[in-house]
Amino acid sequence: MLNETLIYIGSAIIIAWGIVHLIPTGAIVKGFGDISGDSKKILTMGLLAEGFTLIFLGVLPLVFTILSGPQGKPADIVYVACGAMLLLMAVITTLTGARTAEIPYKICPLVKTAVAVLFILGSVY
């Protein structure tokens, strides 16, 4: 039961964080000022890809847990794989966006790491 709760909490947090990433996409792109159309498209693509990836990394363990249960080797693989991907994304964000003055980018690695820990603990308990 504890592992299921950890997965549900982690999934809810990272799905919400992913949605929060998607909302300001237009404003962020506009904030870069007069850049080329291609640069705007690439920037938009990157922002949307991160947001949807975070949502996917929350939906996958959530749906897996609901449909197959929270225990067993397949569940553990899903939880650890999603946790590992979130840790990788946390490292990337730490080396890039978190080095800016923007507060949401500074806390992003913490959110990703916290959810990764919840997922990995969910595979243990």
Description:
- The chain is mainly alpha-helical and 125 residues long.
- The protein has one domain (2-124).
- Helices cover 84% and strands 0% of the residues.
- It has five helices and no strands.
- It has helices spanning 2-22, 25-31, 37-68, 73-95, 103-124.
- The longest helix is centred in the middle third of the chain and has 32 residues, at 37-68.
- It is elongated.
- The model has no long low-confidence stretch (mean pLDDT 95).
How are the SSEs ordered, and which strands pair?
Layout: H1 2-22, H2 25-31, H3 37-68, H4 73-95, H5 103-124
Helix pairs in contact: 1-3, 1-5, 2-3, 3-4, 4-5
**Nearest-angstrom radius of gyration?**
16 Å
* Helicity level: over 70%
Give the mean pLDDT: 95
Measured between the Cα atoms of the first and last residue, the distance is: 8 Å
- SSE order in H/E notation? HHHHH
Q: Shape, please? A: elongated
The residue ranges in which pLDDT falls below 50 over 5 or more consecutive positions are none
Beta content comes to: under 5%
**Helix-and-strand structural type:** mainly alpha
Structure annotation, total helices? 5
Instruction: Specify the biggest β-sheet.
Output: none
Number of domain modules = 1
**DSSP summary, beta strand count:** 0
